[in-house]
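hey m, so remember when u said the tokens were messed up on ur end? i reran from scratch. heres the input so u can diff it against urs
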Amino acid sequence: MKLKLFFSAAVLALAATAATAQDYQFTTVKENPITSIKNQYRSGTCWCFSALSFVESEILRTKGVEVDLSEMFVVGKSYRDRAIKYVRLDGHLNFAAGSSFGDVLHVINDYGIVPQNFTEGYGFNYGTELPEHNELDAALKGYVSAIVKNPNRTLSTAWINGFDNIVEAYFGEIPATFTVDGVEYTPESYRDFLGINYDDYVNITSFTHHPFYEPFVIEVCDNWRWDTAYNLPMDEMMEVMYNAIDKGYTIAWGSDVSEKGFTRDGLAVMPVEKKQAAAGSDQERWVGKAADAPKEEVKAELPEEMVITQEMRQDGYDRKTTTDDHGMHIYGVAKDQNGTNYFMVKNSWGEAGKYKGVWYASDAFVRYKTLNIVVHKDALPKHIAKKLGIK
């Protein structure tokens, strides 16, 4: 997923659409610590940027240490795991840029993690300072597709080395060890130093086509690892989110952002008529080109929002008007001047919009368009944890 920086004519467009948010006055209720805003630019890696941002906040919460973890270390390992599964399944698996929060936790659990600056320029060995993965994604998909065709009828022992060499050509070489504050680490020992434990985290969703209080595999293509999520009624999913923020935890948030109410200028509100996705950057894809004439958006007078029901959520999922568009990081709660609750959302489009990379997502939007969340298990209210059998 992508972000593009706009100038000249874009300034006029931004000024025009700023009116969609200018009358919103937000007061912070609770704000938990986060690390700096990042930019995924022309890459479909929101799942990684948002989940690592979530992990960085977990480290701030538990150790009081601010770290900047390497997204591309995770992306490179994810590409490899996905390639192996794709070939084992004869190509009957999604092989694309998108993935899931669970993928990040799996990579950290299996391979460790490294700081962003452990080696200069890692992940950007292709001539740009920000991620641009269209060529890489096409090259890797072409390679694994050719391997799946398997003209020898028996796989060679060389194909995975060939795949690794393509990733290394674009990303660079990962050293076996690196030094942080005078201490030498491997990726595994650095993970252990940071205290990141895969088993501490819980994936939650809310749909009616599976029983509540039981886990199921969310049926979206980006969930290529087939991770399960606990299924809660919508109101209890929201209770988890408010409880998490109140108790000092943050939330990895997967959401549909194709609604017109998800604006270029830091708002996510309902109701708004659905928009067509545009080509270009990830920001352009979901909220339109800044250089275009401003689209008709939410009126400035804080419109009354839809009352969201469980049935509406399910209808959106069944009709594919709610999909896994974008991963973000929720870290706080605010209210507007009418007392409506909004979640404070750290995005991965750089310092875009009125709030410099932060979006305010209304309670109604989050109820309607959340696909899944990941939280620390201790963020669950006790009565919900008991229902799920989580200790």
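this time it looks ok to me. Residues 118 and 178 are 6 Å apart (CA to CA). if urs says something different then somethings off w ur setup not the seq
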